[in-house]
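testing teh design pipeline on a random one, pls ignore if ur not involved
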């Protein structure tokens, strides 16, 4: 009988204890958990982490730096992003997570001299640069166009998307002349005139003619035609 009463008392005591624990969990703990008030997060972008700390301390908040990352709009050392966002609600005692700018992203300019204009443009695009002004010049003894200068110089660190100017040399066209009239002059004088013009004396044929021996009768190209340096001139001279 006594054992039965003891078990009843023990069971009732356990139920009371369980009800007390449940009541504490239901009534007391929520009030403890939610005792921190909600505040609006200020805009920390553009501030240093130290300045952000001074700004958050009176609000009961802290700063947590997540990482450093390049950013085009914010100088190195300034906060470029934050979580929660500005004006979002956050409970006091918590941390505002921030990303600190490493400054605008830069790259070293490649050496473009000696490349074709097309290849230079492709290399600039590959490295996130843009092709700027292209100045063209004529250069003798050049087989095909190529880049002969660039600005800025190779190795210079530039912001990505910066423009790079090029100087492209193109083969100089052969200088042209009007073919002089050599008819009636001697072969020697014709040879001298041909050499002065940068032309080459080609085949010299003779033909029996009543005029002075060695006098030029015909020429190819004919007088007045356009010729360029290195062109060949053939002559027909009088003979007896």
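output:
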């Amino acid at each position: 009988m006594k054992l039965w009463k003891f078990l009843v008392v023990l069971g009732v005591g356990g139920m009371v204890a369980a009800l007390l624990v449940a009541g504490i969990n239901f009534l007391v703990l929520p009030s403890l958990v939610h005792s921190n008030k909600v505040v609006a997060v200020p805009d920390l972008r553009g501030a240093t982490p130290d300045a952000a700390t001074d700004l958050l301390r009176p609000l009961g908040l802290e700063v947590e730096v997540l990482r450093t990352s390049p950013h085009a709009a914010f100088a190195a050392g300034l906060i470029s992003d934050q979580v929660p966002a500005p004006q979002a609600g956050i409970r006091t005692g918590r941390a505002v997570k921030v990303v600190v700018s490493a400054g605008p992203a830069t790259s070293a300019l490649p050496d473009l001299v000696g490349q074709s204009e097309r290849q230079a443009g492709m290399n600039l695009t590959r490295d996130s640069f843009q092709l700027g002004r292209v100045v063209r010049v004529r250069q003798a003894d050049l087989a095909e166009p190529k880049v002969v200068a660039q600005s800025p110089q190779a190795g210079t660190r530039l912001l990505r998307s910066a423009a790079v100017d090029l100087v492209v040399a193109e083969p100089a066209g052969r200088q042209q002349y009007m073919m002089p009239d050599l008819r009636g002059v001697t072969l020697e004088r014709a040879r001298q005139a041909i050499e002065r013009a940068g032309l080459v004396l080609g085949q010299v044929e003779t033909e029996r003619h009543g005029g002075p021996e060695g006098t030029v009768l015909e020429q190819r190209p004919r007088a007045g035609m356009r010729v360029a340096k290195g062109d060949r001139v053939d002559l027909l001279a009088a003979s007896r």
